[in-house]
Amino acid sequence: MTSCALGAFKDLLWQRFGTASSFGKRLCFAGKSSTGTGHCEYIDHLFINSDIAAALWRWFSPILHPPNSNNEHFTSWCWRIVQGSNLRSPFGFVALYGMLLITWEIWKERCKRRYDSKFTPINTIIDKISLQISHAIHQPVFKTAPSENQLSVLLSLGYKPSIKSIKIKLVRWIPPVYGLCLNVDGASKGNPGLSGGGGCIRDSNGNISLAFAFHYGFGNILQAEVRALHDGLMLANEFGLSINQIYSDSALLVQSFTNNSSPSWE
Fold first, then answer.
1. Is 258 buried (19+), middle (13-18) or exposed (0-12) by CB count in 10 A?
2. Which one, of 192, 190, 248, lies nearest residue 223 by Cα?
3. Is the backbone of residue 260 left (phi > 0), alpha (psi -120 to 50) or beta?
4. Is 17 within 8 Å of 26 (Cβ atoms)?
5. I need a labelling partner for 29 at 20 to 30 A (CA). Which of 41, 127, 142, 214 fits?
6. Is 146 exposed, middle or buried (0-12, 13-18, 19+ CB in 10 A)?
7. Is residue 175 part of a domain?
8. Contact partners, residue 43, CB within 8 Å, separation at least 6
9. How far is Cα of residue 169 from the mean position of the Cα atoms in its chain?
10. pLDDT recorded at residue 11
11. Contacts for 3 with CB less than 8 Å, ≥ 6 apart
12. Residues in domain RNase H type-1 (predicted)?
């Protein structure tokens, strides 16, 4: 499932039915219903209370609390799920994707029963939905980890999401033995893109003697690193500060000074 599919789903609901509240009140399928009777078939009954709907929502209830026609219309419930689902989390992804798949399978089964007089076993439909969710959840790498309870529910249903691991890196500043040190850094939003840089000058006790930051406009990250180093040295000279050490996290820049060679500017 993609953000494009989610946007298309929202647009479909809005363009076809105007608002979620009017959706549930207005839609009625005239003719024979999915249960075989001849009465008017309302959307709340079809997608909440019909035999196929009740069975599917009951199966999916560990992930998503089933809709209740006594509390709100089915479309209002759908709209609330669409707006409230966190797609960065595997639990939110499965909840929204499962809701869409179940809704689609209910509609398909309704049409099959009505026009072809054919019935699909509920376990077959559940297996199909579960397989689609399992396939979809393996593709993205989620940035937000689920809670322990949510992960337990996902695993119990056979869904094993890939979650981006958070690596903790301890950074320790090593002060100069004597004199002052210059620490610089540059960055660009895109490479190339809008760039900037800055830095600070500290003594052996960690006290800041000078700090600076500049916007450099359009450029690549190496250019930003070099300009930050240049500005730091120029400011140190302007204020009469003698620099004994220079720190930079740009391996390419450090290597160029170590090898006494010009870096590649591309």
1. exposed
2. 192
3. left
4. yes
5. 127
6. buried
7. no
8. 23, 24, 27, 28, 29, 73, 74, 75
9. 23
10. 54
11. 87
12. 176-266
Closest CA to 78 of 57, 56, 58, 96: 96
Write down the pTM of the prediction: 0.55
- How buried is 86 (Cβ within 10 angstroms: 0-12 exposed, 13-18 middle, 19+ buried)? middle
Give the pLDDT mean for 178-195: 91
Full domain range(s) for residue 55 = 3-163
pLDDT digits (tens, 9 = 90+) for 187-233: 999 888 999 999 999 998 889 999 999 999 999 999 999 999 999 99
Q: How far apart are CA 220 and CA 90, in angstroms?
A: 35
- The answer to the question of residue 42 being in a domain is yes
pLDDT of residue 37: 47
Give the pLDDT of residue 104: 94
CATH number of domain containing 221: 3.30.420.10
- In this prediction, residue 265 carries a pLDDT of 67
Residue position matching structure tokens 């302007």: 238
How many folded domains does the chain comprise?
Answer: 2
Q: Is 45 part of a structural domain of the chain?
A: yes
